[in-house]
Amino acid sequence: MEYRRLGKTDERISTIGMGTWRIGDAKDQQGRQEQILALRHGVELGINVIDTAEMYGDGKSEQLVGEAFRDQRDSVFIATKVTPSHLHHDDVIAACNRSLERLGVRYVDLYQIHWPNPQIPIRESMSAMEKLVRDGRVRYVGVSNFSVEETREAQEALAKSELVSNQVEYSLVNRSIEGDLIPYCKKEGITVIAYSPLARGHVPVSRIPRQLLEKYQLSPAQLMLNWVTRDENVVAIPKSAKLEHMDENANSVSVRLGPDDYQMISEAFK
Description:
- With 270 residues, this protein is α/β, with parallel strands linked by helices.
- It has a single domain (3-203, 224-255), classed as TIM Barrel, CATH 3.20.20.
- It has 10 helices and 10 strands.
- The chain has helices at residues 29-44, 60-68, 89-103, 122-134, 148-157, 181-188, 210-216, 220-228, 243-250, 259-268; strands spanning 3-5, 12-14, 18-19, 49-51, 77-82, 108-113, 138-144, 163-169, 191-195, 234-236.
- Helix 1 links the parallel strand 3 and strand 4 (49-51).
- The longest helix has 16 residues, at 29-44.
- The radius of gyration is 18 Å and the shape is globular.
């Protein structure tokens, strides 16, 4: 597994993480156990980042993550998110406490604002995030779905903490952040966490150059993850609920493409 620096910190996180959207909603105990086994297998493969949110399954995702890593807290970097409706100062604190309870942990490694709320000042939310850091309930502060201007505002609102990440949608078929957000985050030392890097399962296989699949012995999904994380400033969190998918995801960065080959893929998806 490949590891990268989180923001400007000394924290090393796996280039490929584990996303948990719609994980925790299994209809029976067998399905739940399969999801837990997949997450644990990811750690065995060297993946140390697991991303969840209070919004996912109304807390059920956080509960499953907590169950999966109850005895392995030091092996995982747990990231979760606060919903846009909980961004007033005291609501952020209360939401974090509920997430900690569901996860069964004393702290989360990364706490993120899931979406900005134009009705609530970013400065107010960031004040609460810093209090959580001071109180030892959060290690690092991040945001999600923030524009360049909103990211800058969040940075400026933090008195002592650093904004380490911005989690945004990014894939071969959704490249809207390439023009402004990625260059800005790279310049500011903010990690971009790419969600839905596999385009929500709609892998456009026919547009992926066949010669590259054969040259690097990668599947279409692996090539997509490899391309998304070609920049040192980007990590990806594909959803991971099955053992075979976890193996595929973890091995997607076992080899790196040459610059010309990355360009070939980029051109194919213009």
